[in-house]
Amino acid sequence: MSIEKVDDGVVVSMEYKLTVDGEVLDSSDQAGPLQFLAGYGNIIPGLEKEMMGMKIGDSKELTVQPEDGYGEFDEEAFMDVPRSEFPADMKLEEGAELHITDEDGEHQAAYVLSFDDKTVKLDFNHPLAGAVLNFYVKVVALRKPTDEELDHGHVHEGGHHH
Q1: Domains along the sequence of the chain with CATH
Q2: Contact 6/51 with Cβ under 8 angstroms?
Q3: Residue 122: which region, alpha, beta or left (left: phi > 0; alpha: psi -120 to 50)?
Q4: Per the confidence metrics, is the pTM higher than 0.85?
Q5: Strand partners, 139
Q6: What does the alpha-carbon distance between residue 31 and residue 7 come to, in Å, rounded to a whole number?
Q7: pLDDT (tens digit per residue) in 105-114
Q8: Contact 118, 92 (CB under 8 A)
Protein backbone atom coordinates (compact mmCIF):
# COMPACT_ATOMS: atom_id res chain seq x y z
CA MET A 1 0.00 0.00 0.00
CA SER A 2 1.59 3.24 -1.05
CA ILE A 3 0.85 6.36 0.93
CA GLU A 4 -0.42 9.23 -1.16
CA LYS A 5 -0.58 12.11 1.25
CA VAL A 6 0.20 13.40 4.74
CA ASP A 7 -2.34 11.91 7.14
CA ASP A 8 -2.55 10.74 10.75
CA GLY A 9 -0.13 7.90 11.37
CA VAL A 10 2.11 8.59 8.36
CA VAL A 11 5.84 9.21 8.71
CA VAL A 12 6.62 12.37 6.79
CA SER A 13 10.08 13.50 5.67
CA MET A 14 10.16 17.20 5.02
CA GLU A 15 12.57 19.88 4.05
CA TYR A 16 11.84 23.07 5.89
CA LYS A 17 13.00 26.55 6.67
CA LEU A 18 11.89 28.56 9.69
CA THR A 19 12.08 32.34 9.49
CA VAL A 20 11.22 34.71 12.34
CA ASP A 21 11.31 38.47 11.76
CA GLY A 22 13.13 37.94 8.47
CA GLU A 23 15.91 35.89 10.06
CA VAL A 24 16.34 32.22 9.18
CA LEU A 25 16.48 30.41 12.54
CA ASP A 26 16.38 26.83 11.44
CA SER A 27 16.40 24.82 8.25
CA SER A 28 16.88 21.29 7.03
CA ASP A 29 19.89 22.30 4.92
CA GLN A 30 22.42 21.11 7.49
CA ALA A 31 20.82 18.07 9.04
CA GLY A 32 18.75 16.92 6.07
CA PRO A 33 15.00 16.41 6.02
CA LEU A 34 13.12 16.21 9.30
CA GLN A 35 11.02 13.12 9.90
CA PHE A 36 7.92 13.19 12.02
CA LEU A 37 4.91 10.99 12.68
CA ALA A 38 1.85 12.97 11.61
CA GLY A 39 -1.08 13.26 13.99
CA TYR A 40 0.95 12.63 17.14
CA GLY A 41 1.96 16.15 18.11
CA ASN A 42 5.63 15.59 17.17
CA ILE A 43 5.77 19.06 15.64
CA ILE A 44 3.97 22.28 16.53
CA PRO A 45 0.19 22.08 15.99
CA GLY A 46 -0.07 24.92 13.48
CA LEU A 47 2.47 23.31 11.18
CA GLU A 48 1.05 19.81 11.49
CA LYS A 49 -2.47 21.01 10.70
CA GLU A 50 -1.35 22.87 7.59
CA MET A 51 0.61 19.90 6.25
CA MET A 52 -2.27 17.43 6.32
CA GLY A 53 -3.15 16.31 2.81
CA MET A 54 0.15 17.42 1.22
CA LYS A 55 1.63 15.01 -1.32
CA ILE A 56 5.26 14.17 -2.10
CA GLY A 57 6.82 17.10 -3.91
CA ASP A 58 4.25 19.59 -2.58
CA SER A 59 5.63 22.66 -0.91
CA LYS A 60 4.03 25.63 0.77
CA GLU A 61 4.81 28.70 2.76
CA LEU A 62 2.80 29.29 5.87
CA THR A 63 2.63 31.53 8.88
CA VAL A 64 1.99 30.07 12.31
CA GLN A 65 0.68 32.34 15.07
CA PRO A 66 2.09 31.94 18.61
CA GLU A 67 -0.95 30.07 19.95
CA ASP A 68 -0.41 27.36 17.31
CA GLY A 69 3.36 27.52 17.67
CA TYR A 70 5.39 27.78 20.85
CA GLY A 71 2.73 29.56 22.87
CA GLU A 72 2.31 33.13 24.01
CA PHE A 73 5.09 34.73 26.01
CA ASP A 74 4.30 34.26 29.69
CA GLU A 75 5.37 37.14 31.93
CA GLU A 76 4.98 34.83 34.93
CA ALA A 77 7.24 32.08 33.65
CA PHE A 78 10.33 33.32 35.44
CA MET A 79 11.89 31.91 38.54
CA ASP A 80 14.71 32.94 40.84
CA VAL A 81 16.65 29.94 42.04
CA PRO A 82 19.39 30.08 44.69
CA ARG A 83 22.81 29.54 43.14
CA SER A 84 23.40 26.91 45.82
CA GLU A 85 20.82 24.63 44.21
CA PHE A 86 23.01 24.26 41.15
CA PRO A 87 26.11 22.04 41.20
CA ALA A 88 29.08 24.17 42.22
CA ASP A 89 31.12 23.01 39.24
CA MET A 90 28.37 23.83 36.78
CA LYS A 91 29.31 26.63 34.43
CA LEU A 92 26.39 28.96 34.02
CA GLU A 93 26.03 31.19 31.02
CA GLU A 94 23.32 33.50 29.83
CA GLY A 95 21.02 31.82 27.34
CA ALA A 96 22.11 28.32 28.36
CA GLU A 97 19.35 25.73 28.24
CA LEU A 98 18.78 23.69 31.38
CA HIS A 99 16.54 20.71 31.84
CA ILE A 100 14.68 20.77 35.08
CA THR A 101 12.38 18.22 36.68
CA ASP A 102 9.55 19.75 38.67
CA GLU A 103 7.67 18.30 41.65
CA ASP A 104 5.41 16.24 39.38
CA GLY A 105 8.40 14.70 37.64
CA GLU A 106 7.66 16.68 34.48
CA HIS A 107 10.69 17.71 32.47
CA GLN A 108 10.89 21.33 31.56
CA ALA A 109 13.40 23.34 29.63
CA ALA A 110 14.50 26.60 31.19
CA TYR A 111 16.91 29.22 29.97
CA VAL A 112 19.36 31.16 32.09
CA LEU A 113 18.35 34.79 31.89
CA SER A 114 20.95 36.18 34.26
CA PHE A 115 22.83 35.12 37.36
CA ASP A 116 25.13 36.31 40.11
CA ASP A 117 26.76 34.60 43.12
CA LYS A 118 23.47 34.23 44.97
CA THR A 119 20.68 33.86 42.44
CA VAL A 120 20.03 32.39 39.04
CA LYS A 121 17.10 33.87 37.13
CA LEU A 122 15.45 31.28 34.90
CA ASP A 123 13.05 31.82 32.03
CA PHE A 124 10.68 28.93 31.33
CA ASN A 125 9.38 30.47 28.11
CA HIS A 126 10.45 28.73 24.93
CA PRO A 127 12.85 31.05 23.07
CA LEU A 128 10.22 31.30 20.33
CA ALA A 129 7.28 31.93 22.67
CA GLY A 130 5.23 34.80 21.30
CA ALA A 131 6.92 34.61 17.92
CA VAL A 132 5.13 34.52 14.59
CA LEU A 133 6.74 31.64 12.71
CA ASN A 134 7.15 31.67 8.95
CA PHE A 135 7.72 28.23 7.48
CA TYR A 136 8.62 26.97 4.07
CA VAL A 137 7.97 23.24 3.95
CA LYS A 138 8.34 20.63 1.26
CA VAL A 139 7.28 16.99 1.56
CA VAL A 140 10.07 14.76 0.23
CA ALA A 141 8.96 11.30 1.35
CA LEU A 142 6.09 9.48 3.02
CA ARG A 143 6.12 6.03 4.59
CA LYS A 144 4.19 3.79 6.93
CA PRO A 145 5.50 3.82 10.50
CA THR A 146 6.82 0.67 12.12
CA ASP A 147 4.71 -0.87 14.89
CA GLU A 148 7.22 0.39 17.42
CA GLU A 149 7.02 3.93 16.12
CA LEU A 150 3.24 3.85 16.29
CA ASP A 151 3.45 2.40 19.76
CA HIS A 152 5.78 5.16 20.96
CA GLY A 153 4.10 7.90 18.95
CA HIS A 154 7.27 9.22 17.34
CA VAL A 155 9.87 8.35 14.71
CA HIS A 156 12.92 6.27 15.59
CA GLU A 157 15.95 7.38 13.65
CA GLY A 158 19.02 5.33 14.38
CA GLY A 159 18.59 5.51 18.13
CA HIS A 160 18.22 9.29 18.05
CA HIS A 161 15.67 10.16 20.65
CA HIS A 162 14.08 13.47 21.65
Answers
A1: 11-67+130-152 (3.10.50.40), 78-123 (2.40.10.330)
A2: yes
A3: beta
A4: no
A5: 14
A6: 24
A7: 888 899 999 9
A8: no
